[in-house]
Amino acid sequence: MSFIDTVLIEKRAFLPSKQFAAEAHVGNPLEYEPLWNQSQRDPVAFWDEAARNITWINRWKRTLLWQEPYAKWFEGGTLNAAYNCLDRHLKEGLGKKTAIIWEGEDGSHLTLSYQGLFEQVCQLANFLERKLGLKAGDTAAIYMPMVPEAVVAMLACARIGVTHNVIFGGFSGHAIRDRVQDSECRIIFTADVGYRRGQEVELLKTVDSVLSEMPTVENVMVLKRKSETHLKEKQHDWRLVCNQEAKKHDARPFDSEHPLFLLYTSGTTGKPKGIIHSTGGYLVGVTTTAKWIFDLKSTDVFWCTADIGWITGHSYVVYGLLSNAATIVIYEGAPFHPHPGRYWEIIEKHRVTILYTAPTAIRACMRAGNDHPKKHNLNSLRLLGSVGEPINPEAWMWYHTEIGKSRCPIVDTWWQTETGSILIAPLPGVTATKPGSATRPFPGIVADIVNDEGRSCAPNEGGYLVIRNPWPSMLRGIYKNPERFKESYWSKFPGMYFTGDGAHRDERGYFWIKGRVDDVINVSGHRLGTMEVESALVSHPKVAEAAVVGRPDPIKGQALVAFVTPRGEESGLDVKKLTQELKDHVAREIGAIARPDEIKLTRTLPKTRSGKIMRRLLKELAEGKEPTGDTTTLENSTLVEIIGE
Ligand code: PRX
Fold it and tell me: What is the DSSP letter of 101?
């Protein structure tokens, strides 16, 4: 397959130091290899064993019931996710341990102990249950800045069986409305404002602007950060109402398959899909992977820079870390604010031991220069992680030498919103890492690379990344859309989960992920569907047609380029004004993350005779290349004419 040819041959390999290996949870390759091999033969047995590390109220009767594409893990088991993240640690005497270190952009900070977090969660759970009548089976939207209360809201929902739906705080009112209505949320958790780049982000105002279009919403919980904020009908002052509630609450058991949360993500259509995650399987997946891949110790201070609005925030800020009784850092602010060394300053200040971030952030820091990390003492760091997109070897090496001082292992972790937890990554105490490779599947995960016919590829042959076995934290479906669930993941190759990524595997069994092979673009580690941006563009009255493609970008990984055919007469068209207007329009419809980097106005779009837009051609144009390959199927053989060029 030429489109995913292997071009990268990386020879450098890095072994963990003897000391790191000696202290690691998994540090002996002679023990690990047989365990890994066994887990490939019998993944269910591996996960059955792993499930014993979380606390169940009733033990499961059957480990897996698999009726493709539907899985039931730990059938008959009951548990409570919030209990696993809180109560069980208090029982072990960890009440005084710091759960959350929160750092504000202006340098203010606060810490919250496990006991303190527990009490806040209980007060909110009591209010939701007793005063608002929320119950298991309901859904709740969480549209919050990066503050501890965002975690409190998630855990309070989990505690009472309400399925949460976190919506990234950068999304627009329309994006909130669509997600809230699709998932029929009864309540929204928000704050009057968040703080970013020295500015106030008016979250409540955004919610208010679409509240009348969300009839299912009965209540809005508002975290007031400004005393002058005035609340309206349906809105509750979070702190005020919770102060009147008891600081205890009995966590009730929920079925292992009870939906813990929904998370909307982009796919290949214009509409985001609500990915459903379970309680038991999800918690087993994130707890086990967090402990092994980050080699979590009780003394670690773990900082994952992802927002809780993404899956990384769910799994490796909240559930996987708190279930392991870790101390987490939450930063509310932009990476470069007020100066480019902000990340390194935070690491020094809070003695962070594990940093988990995205290649786009690493590349931006790299560009800002080596002086910034050099100004800070980064000796506390012992492990580094990367997630969200392929990491280029140059960025990997910079991370390794400038940040990890050549002593911290790097775990390049491959996974997806749908997979719930990390599926391919090194174990830092045993795996020799190679810059740019996520290395090997986690135990209990049977990954493969297949060709168009679904047959395993030879070493170094490019193909599609698939997972051959069910795993506990896998998605359970797409909310209210079983057809799309089957079609997106289970129809391309019978009996395999299709990831949508292209990859190859080398002779050593190492996986090298190249990125999406579908119409999904990864911009700064955020996933965007080209169709989603296209439908936002065509909703503008001046747009006749639009096609969106990705173009490689040195910092963002990929940048969004939109080709737009405007409606009406070309004469008198103000190209600059219209492109600006369209960029703002997309930001308003979806959010600033979807704002196209470039808009090219075109007279027509290149289409095949059957009417399909030829994206390959547009991609080449976006990259500034001369169109190559076959254009004989093109309906109008004239090439794309850009207006104003
Ligand atoms: O293309 C892969 C890329 O991110 C996609 C999943 O995006 P999302 O669901 O938003 O989740 C991101 C955080 C888990 C994948 O299909 N991706 C994620 N991690 C890596 C990666 N590509 C290469 N290497 C990675 N480590």
Answer: E
CA-CA distances (angstroms) from residue 371 to 97, 379, 424?
A: 35, 16, 33
Span 582-631, pLDDT tens digits: 999 999 999 999 999 999 999 888 887 777 888 888 998 898 887 666 66
CB 273 within 8 Å of CB 264: yes
How far lies 597's CA from each of 257, 449, 556, 617, in Å? 41, 33, 11, 18
Q: Which letter does DSSP use for residue 52 in this model?
A: G
- Which residue has the CA at smallest separation from atom 3 of ligand 1? 389
Ligand 1 center to 526 CA (angstroms): 9
Q: Are 618 and 534 in contact, with CB atoms under 8 Å apart?
A: no
* Ligand 1 centre distance from Cα of residue 387 (Å): 7
Q: Please name the residue ranges forming H helices in 410-494.
A: 482-485
Cβ-proximal residues to 11 (8 Å cutoff; 6+ apart), any chain = none
Give 388 Cα–ligand 1 centroid separation in angstroms: 4
Instruction: Place 642 in a pLDDT band, splitting at 50, 70 and 90.
Output: confident
Distances (CA, A) of 357 to 144, 288, 330, 389, 395: 20, 20, 13, 11, 12
Residues 9, 27: Cα–Cα separation, whole Å: 27
Give the alpha-carbon dihedral of 71, 72, 74, 80, to 10 degrees: 110
Q: What's the CA gap between 489 and 518, in Å, rounded?
A: 12
Residue 594, sorted as left (phi over 0), alpha (psi -120 to 50) or beta, turns out to be alpha
Cα–Cα distance measured from residue 146 to residue 167, given in angstroms and rounded to the nearest whole number: 12
In the chain, the domains with their CATH numbers are 524-622 (3.30.300.30)
What is this structure's pTM? 0.94
Per-residue pLDDT of 159-182, as tens digits, reads: 999 999 999 999 999 999 999 999
Closest atom of ligand 1 to 417 CA is: 9
Neighbouring residues of 28: CB distance < 8 A, sequence distance ≥ 6: 21, 430
Residue 141, judged by CB atoms within 10 A of its CB (0-12, 13-18, 19+), counts as buried
The letter for the amino acid at 151 is: V
Residue written as token pair 């050099």: 374
Residue range 80-131, pLDDT digits in tens: 999 999 999 999 999 999 999 999 999 999 999 999 999 999 999 999 999 9
> How far is Cα 459 from Cα 463, in angstroms, rounded to an integer?
10
Residue 516 in contact with ligand 1 by CB distance below 6 A? yes
Please state the three-class secondary structure of 199-237 as a single string: EEECHHHHHHHHHCCCCCCCEEEEECCCCCCCCCCCEEE
Q: Report yes or no: 529 and 272 within 8 Å, Cβ to Cβ.
A: yes
Q: Given ligand 1 and candidates 384, 387, 474, which is best to mutate, with the most ligand atoms within 8 Å of its CB?
A: 387
What is the DSSP secondary structure assignment for residue 445, as one 8-state letter? -
Mapped onto helix, strand or coil, the DSSP state of residue 266 is coil
